[in-house]
Specification:
single chain; alpha/beta; five-stranded parallel β-sheet; 5 strands; globular
Amino acid sequence: MRILVADDNDLVRGAIRSLLAAEADWEICGEASDGASALRNARELQPDLVLLDISMPLATGFQIARSLRQDIPQIKILIMSQEDAAQLAPSALGAGADGCVDKARIARDLVDAIKNLKPREISGAAGS
């Protein structure tokens, strides 16, 4: 699985890289530190999954999720936030994300959240 990590905090991106490095078939194919570069990198790199910080310069995670859902409907999107993931979930799903992860629990929850993502059904696509 090819993953793009978008977060404006270098330490968070580094922690996520370290956390996901243990997964054999996962590759960090790119990183972004603001919303504009997250959109650009996702469109260019076509990752399987984008991990999006909810609050970044130039565009929010919700704005990016909406754009990516239109441009690349099959892409998986997880929103990361300091807020409680359960409270954030309805807004994240409404913006087109497949789920959200609380940054305070990222070391414990991120890998499972990624593994539990379900295939996205694309209207008009043959099979799923």
